[in-house]
Amino acid sequence: MNSAPGAVSAKPQAAVNLSPLLALVDQEMALVEEFLTTNMIDENPFVEELLKQIFAAGGKRIRPLIVLLSSKATSKTEELGRLHIILGVLTELIHTASLVHDDVIDRASVRRGQETINKKYNERVAVLMGDLLFAQASICLARIMNPVIVGIYGQVLGDLCAGEIKQMRQQFVSTVDWDAYIGKSVSKTASLFSAGSHSGSILNGCPNDTIQQLKEYGLNLGICFQIADDLLDITGQSSETGKAVGSDLRNGLVTAPAMFVLERKDAHSDKLKKLIQTREVATDEGVAEALSIIRAQGGVEATIGLARQYGDKSLAALAELKPSPYKDALAALTDYVMIRTS
Ligand code: FPP
Ligand code: MG
Fold it and tell me: At 157, which CATH number?
């Protein structure tokens, strides 16, 4: 796939509310939340304070939601056990740890509307706090006592690091390579979504076909999520996203909205290319100019179309799953991911 994968124009859609989806697993999510906010204790008051700060800052808890809904959708009794809860906790811990590290790499100052650990304290504390969360995730993984799931999440940790390295190697590079872009999005984001979407069905002893369908669902949902995340860097409101708008561009990260403009090879793409190659995008004026070119030249609409393609693939993967409110909620989650604003 060396050219843009057939982007379509955006259709206006009604916002999807996460609350009814969360309500389907409210008791289980409360247990996940309790673990994240109260069970994570450390004898050092400073470390404990940091842990509280990280988890009290909120977050949408989309990954544990995927774990719980897909586990319920494939459970014979609809009852989830302790291991499913730990799977939800583990998935959120890995996500949170990777964000703490990501903020060091991106030199980000704000996350979830709060000062990042690297900004508030320093990078060394942030790296070690991320490591501490990864260590907690390893303990959860051991508690699940399933070697297949250990292998899946071990692969995710490798993928996260590989994805970040791939991204780092592409900074301030204006060449359009869609395979590389999607591959990087799989590594840094979709790999964890996919682990979360199918590991519960492994615990439930489901047939291989079901496990594969849920793996495919999570993979495509994760790609869709990353594309939507890249779009929010261009179109989002920092009051809603809790992050600084345009920070990908400032860091020289060329994502789908810019790529759609760059591949047109006209005066606008030449200007955008120059802003990236000369690193002017890292300045206030440069990023403002790049954002206005991308917005005016159709980068936003084309990116919504691309996100929709992966969203549709994730919906198609659910087709064979037995009907249930949990299956419907997984489908609604795809709509939420495609049109989210935060
Ligand atoms: C956010 O991307 C970052 C990720 C999805 C993954 C980051 C992974 C690492 C830093 C490696 C983790 C390390 C280990 C040891 C496994 P983004 O910058 O596009 O999103 P943002 O806009 O929310 O910052
Ligand atoms: Mg980042």
Answer: 1.10.600.10
